[in-house]
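User: I'm putting together a teaching handout on how sequence relates to shape, and I'd like one worked example. Could you take SET domain-containing protein from Jatropha curcas, show the sequence you're using, and then write out its predicted structure as tokens right after it?

Assistant: Happy to. First the sequence, then the structure tokens directly below it.
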Amino acid sequence: MSETLVRIEEVQGRGRALVSSRPLRAGEIVLRDSPILLYSAFPLNRASIKYCDECFRNLQSASIVVSCPSCSHHHFCGPNCLSAAMASSHAPWVCRALSCLRECPSLVVERQVQARFLIGAYNLAVVAPSNFQILSSLQGRGEDEDAAVAQFLHSIISPLCPPSLVELSVELTRALLAKDKLNAFGLMEPFNLNEERSVRAYGVYPKASFFNHDCLPNACRFDYVDAAADGNTDIIIRMIHDVPQGREICLSYFPVNESYSSRQKRLLGDYGFTCECDRCKVEANWSDHEEEDVVGEAMEQDHDEPMEEEEEVGSDNETDFPHSYFFVRYMCNRNNCWGTLAPLSPSSHANILECNVCGNIKNDEVVGVDADA
């Protein structure tokens, strides 16, 4: 994160936030963040092996697939990932712990994923104490019902941990679960026209955790898990449109086409707050039918025709910014996608926008050019 582009500030009613240190242009990358912790979103006893357990690349594209020599349950896209995993994320005690958990019938899938996170977090305290301190410093959200979950998971996992982890407690387990709930980003499975996308892995990205939510965001995140040669699990935050100095930089925590009621339910249930962004203030009095009409009419607009001039996004009158402009300009209209578009760069490719879900390319006002064309 470049301090010349964004800085951390306390924003009233929103806590710590990232704001622009100077005027930012559409397409500018304001953050590239590496995870301090990655863990699989799949059940421990999954039937099919699709991704490397270290870098989470698709194993179908790997020239060689190797298995953990101790448990044979975990697979890697080559000797380098195996060596890296055995020295860190898949240390011997982690391997033994995960093998034991496979035999635990009381762990439903949600608890299995939480157990993976906790083992990864405890292991972080051993192999990378500084990163564990970063994880511990992140904001968390505790709930009454989490106490029982923490007690249950602690009773199962603590006997599997090495003796060096002397500070293990139910309170620490609960605090870590709260960090995970509020800060984990999902690395998604590849886009498929006929299937709903699911999460292949979760990652904790310490700098990206400072981005707050807005239902009409001015930035969006990209990842290139299967494409990038190096740092393939990094996430990249790119500006959607120009913003002035001092403006808060926000992401949308889910697809922007969701209805007002759905957004509010998810934000309250998952993150513990009621959204009062400009879009929500407008839509609060709308019916679901009115919302569907706005999105539908916008997406049915003829993209081959020039759009009428609208007030520039990011101006000081964002409360008057029409939803339809955002949906037409910055939401992918590919079937089953609903991703967000951002320019590839602020200079020569300012009019070429990339979808952060399917990789589709929109060239100026022309939509539907394949990313590999």
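A couple of points you could highlight for students: The chain has a mean pLDDT of 85. The two ends are 32 Å apart (CA to CA).
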